[in-house]
Each structure stands twice: as C-alpha cells, then as structure tokens.
Amino acid sequence: RIMARQGSRLDRTDLIWSLSVTCACFAIYVSTMYRTVGGGDSGDLVATCCNLGVAHPPGYPLHTILGAIFVRAIPYGSPAFRVNLLSALSASIAAGFLFSVSNLLLRTKIVQSSASKHGDDELDCSRFVSAWSAFSFAFSPLVWTYATHAEVFAMNNMFVAVLLFLHLRFALTKDPKDAQTAAMVIGLGLSNQHTIMFYALPIVSMNIKKEPGLLLRPRLFLSLCFWGLVGLLPYAYLVVAAAHPPLGSWGATDSMEGLIRHVLRSEYGTFRLYSGDDQQVQTNLTNFLVKFGWELLQQTHYVGVLLAVVGFFYLFTGGKKNVRDKDKTDSAARCEHVVAKELLYLLSFYLLVFGSLSNLPDKSQMHLGVLKRFWMQANLVVSVFIGVGVCAVMKRIDQWRSKFVAPLVIAAAAVQVGLYYDDMDRSTSDVIEKYGRAFLQEMPNNSKLIVQGDVNCHVIRYLQACQQIRPDIVYLDQVLMNFPWYDEKQAKILKEKHVIFPGTKFGGPPTVKLEKHEYTWEKFLKVNVKKSKQEWFNCGGWHFYDQMPGEGPAGWSRVKVNFGLCSLIWKDDWKMSNETLHSIAEQAIKARRALDFDLPAPTDYPEEAWEHHIAGQTWMKRDEFGRQMIGLWEGGRVRKALQAAVDEYRDIVEKCNWPGRPATILRFYGLALSYYAGVLQEEKKTREALETQKQSLATFKRYLVLAPHDRDRKVIEDHIEKAEAALQGSKKSE
User: Fold this and answer.
1) Which pick of 96, 171, 255, 277 has the fewest CB atoms within 10 Å?
2) Is 671 exposed, middle or buried (0-12, 13-18, 19+ CB in 10 A)?
3) pLDDT of amino acid 1
4) How far is residue 217's CA from residue 179's CA, in Å, rounded to a whole number?
5) Which string of DSSP letters, residue by residue, matches 187-224?
6) What is the pLDDT of residue 335?
7) Mean pLDDT, the chain, as a whole number?
8) Element (H, E) at 610
9) Which helix (H) or strand (E) holds 173?
10) Which of 477, 518, 478, 484 has its CA nearest to residue 501?
C-alpha cells in the first residue's frame, strides 16, 4: 500500500506535463475549429446558450450554463465560435487527464522497480509515453471532429477521463477525498451527457465491492450522496428556463412530470438514440461491435490495437518479469492486476450495454456518423492500454530510455497531427451558416416557415436567437409540434405572431383517427394559408408524409415554386393568374440569390459529415428551381423564369462536376436551352438562336451518353434529328 501511495503522487513536474499536453491540444484544436456554427445539434445547443432556453432531451443544462458564460464573457468572435471554444477546452482537458491516468499506471511500475538504475530517466519515459497515449486519443479523427464545434461529447470525454483518473488513484490510495470528488464528477457528467452512467455504475459497484467497510460507513456514504447531488444541481436550470421559454425551447420542464420526462428522454425512448418510425427494435449487437472494431483499427492504424492488447496483458500480469524484489512490490503489482481487469470490464460493459440499447437504423453513413460519437468513451480506455503497450514494447527491446522514447513520441505525435490536420481543419468552413442564411435572407417579409430536419431547424434557431437575423420570419419546428407540451409552451408564442392552431394537439399521420381537440396538416393549412398572401413555405418536407405516396398534405402542393431552400405552399385548386405567376417568379428569382455562396461538392466531405448532406441538399434545390422555372415558362410563358432556368443550369453544369452528379441535370439544361432558342428566334435574334440551339443539341447528346436507358430516349433522339435538320436548312438558306 505504501508503494502504491508513492506511485500515485503526481509531483509538480507531472502537473506541468499534464498542463502542457492540455495546452498543446487546445492550441491545435483552436486553429482548426469552426469560426461559426457547426452541423448536427450544434445550432440548437448554441441557441440555448444565447436565449437561455431548454435544449433537446435530456436538456444538457451544464453545457448550456457554461456555454452561456462563454457567450457573454468572451468578447471575440461569433456566439458559435465562443461555445465552440468550450468544446475545444473540454477535449483538451480530457487529453490532460488521460495523460495523468497513463502516467499513474506507469509510475506505479517504476516505483515498484526499486532495483532500477535509471529511476529519474524512467519517470521521464513514462511521461513521454503517457503524452503519446493522450495525443493518440486527442488527435484521432473522431475525437478531433467533436473538439471543433459545439457539442456535448467533448465535455463527456473530459468527465470520463477525470473519473478514470480518480478511480485509479482511489484504487492506489483509498483516499476518501478521491471518492467524494468522483461522486461530484459523476453528477456533473450526468448533467451533461447520460452515457457517463455506463462507466459510473460499474466503477461505483466495483469500489463498493472492494472497500465496503470504507465506502459504506454512514458518514462517508452520506457525503458521497451529497456530492453526487451537488453535481446534479445544474438540472435546476431546466425548471427556471421553462417558465418563460423562447421560440424553439423544448419541453415543459417547469413541472415535475415534464422535468422527469425530459431528463429521461422519454420522447426518444429512455436510453435510446432515435425516435424515428424506422428505428430498430433491437440493435444487432454483433454488427455494432464489428463496426466499432473496424473503426478502431482504422483510427489507430492497426498498430494501436496491437499495442493496446500488449498493454492489457502487461498490466494484467503485473509486470512480474520486470520486478526483482517481490516482497516490496506485491501489493502494487496486485493493484495493477486488478486495475487491468477493471479497465477491461469498463470497456466491455460500456460496449455491450450501449450496443444493446442503440436503436439507430443502419441505413446510411449519416446514421453511422451519429453512432460513432459514442465510441469515443470506449476509446479513452483503449488509449490508456496503448500507452502501457508502448512501455512494454520499449522495455522488451531494452530501449526504455528517454533518449530513445522522446524522439519516438514527438515524431509519432507530429505525424498523426500532420496526417489529419487538413481534413480536420474547419477554420474556414462557413457552409452551414450560409446554408442557414439561405432559409432567411431573401424570403418575403413576415414569411412563415414550416420546417423539418434537425440541421434545418437548428441553424435557423441559431441565426435568429444569436445573430438576430430576420426576426420577422416565424418558423414552426414540425418535430416539436408532435409533443403534448407544444400547445402550452410554443404554440402560445406563435399565436402572438398570427399563427392559428385549429386544435390543441397535432394529430399525427393522416391515417390515424383524430380526437376532437386534434388537427392535421390539412386543417392547419386551411385556416392559415391564404391565396392573396404568398407567405407560407415548407422547408425540408412534411413530417409523417415522407413514407407515403404524394409529396404532402392532400390538396396542397409542396413543390410549386422554390424560394431558395423552401417551397411555396399553394392549394392545388387555386388557379394562378398571369399577374400572380409573374409576381411569384420574380420573388422566387430574388430568393434564389441566397444560394449564391461558395457551395462545395458533396464529395469534398465524408458521407457522415453534415457538410456532405447540406451540399447535396442545396445542389438538389438548385436543380428543382431550374425545373420549376421551366414549368413557369411552359405554364405561363414567363420570360424571366426561362432566363433564370438557363442561367441556373449553365451555372450548375459548370460547377457541379463531381462523380455521381445526376445526369438529368443535362436533360433539363438541354430543354431550357431549346425553349430559349425558340424565344430568341421569335425576338429576331437569329444568330444567338442558332448558337443556343447547337448548345442544346450538344447537351442532349451528352445526356444520352450518360443515361443510355432513359425511357424517353426515342423522343429525345427524334427531337435531336428534327432540330439538326432545321439547322441544316437554316445554313442552306443563308
């Protein structure tokens, strides 16, 4: 026990090393961090920090409180940048504590080796290798990604790393203060992210089993409960914030029932990740573990997994081959043996329990990207084993000297940072904010948006709550409308903005029998959308209609004309006068300007990245806009619309050149050019008409090469043949 206590004492040098690791990670994270809002839940989390609302379940009160302080205390950068700093700082602290965990384990072995002739040098080696362990975790692509924007996962990594450190130190010293601190850390961790519970439960049970006489003493046990409750105090914020919720705030957490429902994520399913209709009832655990293992192999370049295995067995055996004086080291060696088993148990418990509860549908890279976030907690333990494995290998080849270890660690860290730096650099990426601005900037005054999709709602919420962009626009989050608290907490705000609710509860799918107080989209649109005012728009589709035939509520057209990223809502039996057609076309062309930002190709980002999803959606909307402008020409001979279609497709064809680009873009570009050539001919611009027709035919031919099985191939070929004959006739007449 005395030897264990000596190994557990981190001196001033160790503290400086830990701070240095933290600062190094922080500097690199900040240099690659988003300067504005990120994807996923980032917009929602930053918005709640700005307007002091309640975030989606379980509310993340600690993140909101700290983020609100960062927003108000840091005078530099956008509100999103300031909250992003919180993620970077949390991830850096996690790396610093991970260094301390590895260093504690390695120091214990060094203190054991009383016959060692290189004690101080071995301590330096342990510090370098512990830094490697921390850097291998901190600069893995998965961890680095969530250190660059506002999310709760970096802070969760921090609390888990602190908990591991306290668990290890308590295993060595049995100091009650470590247990009390760990109790508060568990409470704070639960105030941020629930998955820390899957480490906290086994850690608490293991320590009570080992030290029941100490931890179950009434006085100490009560103090542990007290400090755990202190850690949970941030949840009181949810009660206060729900009293006067801003638009977009979740839940009715000012009541006990609402608070419990929100904290337990009952609306998603307690301890579940997904609430969609296509969720899996039971995750394939084997598939989950295989994907985790494959991702771990890739993240660590295979070598890391091998080193982790070596590190486990090195700890498990107690390093007895390196111990010469057993009488002095048996206690510490047994402690190492137990710690090795406990770390493996933590890793196994987390993966098995979380893998069993996870219910995300395995249907897209986006869903896989969401699932990967939760693997970081397991990777913390793997990184500890990696550090110990490096120690074991260096000792095995008799190179456990700082002159060999230091250059190796520095080189390995530099290579890892250099390998991923460009891919992780989001310091110049503002695609997500510009995507959000496209929903708002060019829309008609006092527009009302019915929005679906997390990233769509979250980025709109951020721009309005934090940057006060277009406060005249009202948005309705379709997901929130499904919850029983919506009428009390959110509909009341919207009613003040002249939104009418034909009932007190949204009734859900149109196939479900409604109660008297419930309403459908059809009823809602009937009382709100007026023919004389083009002010209602749908953004992102209709909830409950995505899996059904048609594009939206019966009798209502979703895709009539796109205004940027949203579509004008129009009743099918409303006829458009020529004047209305021209007016709508003019407004749509104006709103389309919001999409004129430096839009990347989807292939510039991995499939699980939000930028990939956003780029694909925006290019699709531009294609839709071109088709709709062609439709306005066909239906109402709107000259401006045809010109807009030609300009749109010309720009798309020039810029949208990534692999897998839809070939139909060329088909509609050819059609727009063909119509435009006819207009030029009518306007007596013969030379321009001939050139435009040639370009149209060349475009159609390119399309047929890329889409040889088009069902209208014969029609297109006949058009090409007739148009070429007409061109030949024109040349002869000249």
Assistant:
1) 277
2) buried
3) 46
4) 13
5) HHHHTT-GGGHHHHHHHHHHHHHH-HHHHTSHHHHHHH
6) 65
7) 86
8) helix 610-636
9) helix 153-173
10) 518
Distance CA 488, CA 495 (A): 11
Residue bearing the bigger pLDDT, 542 or 557: 542
Rounded Cα distance, 154 and 159, in Å? 9
Span of 187-196, 205-214, 317-326 with lowest mean pLDDT: 317-326
Q: How far apart are CA 454 and CA 459, in angstroms?
A: 8
Report how far residue 513's alpha carbon sits from residue 534's, in angstroms, rounded to the nearest whole number: 31
Burial class (CB in 10 A: 0-12, 13-18, 19+), 606: middle
Q: What is the pLDDT of residues 234-279, one digit of tens each?
A: 999 999 999 999 999 999 999 999 999 999 988 776 666 555 544 4
**pLDDT band per the 50, 70, 90 thresholds, residue 111:** very low
> C-alpha distances in angstroms, 377 versus 164, 312, 453?
11, 18, 27
> In this structure, are residues 305 and 385 in contact, taking their beta carbons and an 8 Å threshold?
no
Distances in whole angstroms, Cα of residue 690 to Cα of each of 75, 320, 686: 60, 88, 6
More confident call, 657 vs 186: 186
Q: Radius of gyration of the chain from Cα atoms? A: 31
- At position 598, the amino acid (one-letter code) is D
Helix (H, G, I), strand (E, B), or coil: what is residue 113?
coil
Q: How many CB atoms lie within 10 A of CB 328?
A: 17
Best CA proximity match to 618, nearest among 630, 631, 604: 604
Residue 725's identity, in one-letter code, is A
Q: What is the pLDDT of residues 270-290, one digit of tens each?
A: 666 555 544 444 457 888 888
How deeply is 345 buried, as exposed, middle or buried, from its count of CB atoms within 10 A (0-12, 13-18, 19+)? middle
Contacts of 713 (CB under 8 A, 6+ apart): 704, 707
Distance CA 711, CA 720 (A): 16
Q: Residue 658, by phi and psi: left (phi above 0), alpha (psi -120 to 50) or beta? A: beta
Query: If DSSP codes are grouped into helix, strand and coil, which group holds residue 707?
Result: coil
Nearest to 189 by CA among 50, 90, 52: 90
What is the spatial distance between Cα 138 and Cα 144, in angstroms, rounded to a whole number?
6
Structure tokens at 168: 């290890």
- pLDDT for res 310: 92
Q: Say how far apart CA 112 and CA 327 lie, in whole Å.
A: 10
Contact 60, 46 (CB under 8 A): no
Are 499 and 448 within 8 A, CB to CB?
yes
Nearest to 380 by CA among 630, 100, 717, 57: 100
* Amino acid identity at 76: Y
pLDDT at 2 over 80: no
Mean pLDDT over 15-29 rounds to 96
Name residue, tokens 């190492």: 336
What one-letter code names the amino acid at 344? L
pLDDT band at 115 (very low <50, low <70, confident <90, very high): very low
The DSSP element (H or E) to which 566 belongs, if any, is strand 566-568
- Whether a cis peptide bond, with omega within 30° of 0, leads into 79 is no
Torsion angle, alpha carbons of 287, 289, 292, 296, to 10: -130
Tens digits of residue pLDDT in 471-523? 999 999 998 998 989 998 999 899 999 999 998 888 766 666 778 888 888 88
Instruction: Determine the distance from the C-alpha atom of residue 552 to the mean position of all C-alpha atoms in its chain, rounded to a whole number.
Output: 28
d(C-alpha 533, C-alpha 468), whole Å: 25
Taking the C-alpha atoms of residue 158 and residue 151, their distance in angstroms, rounded to an integer, is 13
Structure tokens that stand for 601 in this block: 């190709």
Tell me the pairing of strands 536-539 and 448-451: parallel
**Full 3-state SS string of 511-558:** CCCCCCCEECHHHHHHHHCCCCCCCEEEECCCCCCCCCCCCCCCCEEC
CB atoms within 10 A of CB 652: 21
> Distance (Å, rounded) from C-alpha 732 to C-alpha 730?
5
308: number of Cβ within 10 Å: 24
